[in-house]
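This protein record is not my work; I was only asked to verify it. Would you go through it and say whether the fold makes sense for this chain? Here is the record exactly as it was handed to me.
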Amino acid sequence: MTKFESSIKQIPHSQQSVYNTLSDLNNIQRLKDRLPDGPTGNDDIDKVKDKLQNLTFDKDSLSINVTPVGQVSMRVIDRDEPKTIKFESDNSPLSFSFWIQILPVTETSSKIKLTIDADIPFFAKGMVSKPLQEGIEKIADALAMIPFE
């Protein structure tokens, strides 16, 4: 297994608020609804919007079509309120575990760190390591910008 970790991201919301939002994947719909319609002119936002169009989810699982990998699915396997949400791959071309750690900083702020532990074949490690590291960092950045309520 190969481990990839995001940098630690500061969030201006309480640990409990962050946990409540991220532990129920149905909240993704709320985030999708906040994205502007049509092209924004910002390539990063437009790429995220395109990816989210291929996203399906319910309270405990999500699935997204990732080019060139194909369909990647994961489901929640453990919730340790308000500290950790753990996921596991489910019918994906790559076997992996993914978890979100949420730690309090103050009563009104917290920090998160994401970790992926992936079972990458030796011959593919060179091709997927950099994209996985960049991907986990982008996911952490996106989560840090969520308007948690």
